[in-house]
Structure formats: structure tokens, C-alpha cells
Amino acid sequence: MTGHLIVISGLPGVGKTSVAEVVAARTGSMHLSIDAVEESILACGLPRGWQVGVAAYEAVGTMADLNLRLGQTVIIDAVNDSEEARQTWRGAATRNESRIEFVHLVISDALEHERRLASRDRGLAHVGEPTWADVRRRRAGYAAWSDAAVEIDTAVQTVDEIADAIISRLDFA
């Protein structure tokens, strides 16, 4: 069996989790979110830091492996701002002889992006919500894509429209 790995990436606040949830529900795929795993790790009392982020990527990578091995379609939602992060998913796809596709969500309207961040509350007590300054810092260090990636601007489309675009562009067979 060959699985299918779809990685939905982008800066905080672009809509990764919302879109991944809709795509997974419509396609019967498994959705794995880095933030949810990081929240669980931090809830155990471990201190904040880059190690927790790495642990979350590794844990989600392991869950992806297990499900790709079963022939499942797995949808990851993660910022994926470095080559090291993206290599986690390339490795999972290679180990499991699975297809991999990257989707990069962006917001072309900076004011809309800042507004979304200011008004969101995902209920993550330990991860918290990033500030606009945090996002600007992440943007400055965001690695250019070396892989082909479907890029979608989320500034003026609904979550349903974005999910439709992803489903129509990617092969869910």
C-alpha cells in the first residue's frame, strides 16, 4: 500500500489548521497538527523552547509514518519554515514509498493577516497565540521552497473555497 502525504504550510494565521480540517473531513484523510502536539508536550510541564518544537515535528512524523504505511492519506499542518522541518516530511514519504505534495498558504494582504492574528483564539493555553511582531520575524527567516508547492493566497477566499482548490489540484485517488 502506498500512502499520500499532503503538507499544508505557511506562517501563523494564514489558515493552515482550518483548511487542513476541512480537506481531511471531505476526503476521509487523517489530519495531524504540529500545534496540537506541541500543546500536549507543553501541558506536561516541559519548558518552552526549540526542543519542544522539534519533538512535536518528530512525534507527528512518527504518526505520519504509521498511517502512510497503512496506505492512508495524511494531511499535516505546520509552519514548515525551514529545510530541516520539510525534510521530516520528505523522509516520511520516502520511507513509506508515498507521494508527497506541499501546499503553501500565504496572505497577500498584511492588514488582513494582522487582523486575523489579533482576533484568533485557538484555545491553546500553552502554545499561545503569536503576535504580529512574531510573525514578521518568522517571515524574515522563512526558507525559500526547494520543492514544488501549490501556493494559495487566503486573503480573500473562504476556507471552503481554499479546501475546494486544494482538493481539485491534488490527486486524492
TrEMBL record:
Gene3D superfamilies xref list: P-loop containing nucleotide triphosphate hydrolases (3.40.50.300)
Pfam families linked to this entry: AAA_33
PANTHER family according to UniProt: OS07G0160300 PROTEIN
Protein name: AAA domain-containing protein
Source organism of this protein record: Tessaracoccus flavus
Source taxonomy: Bacteria, Bacillati, Actinomycetota, Actinomycetes, Propionibacteriales
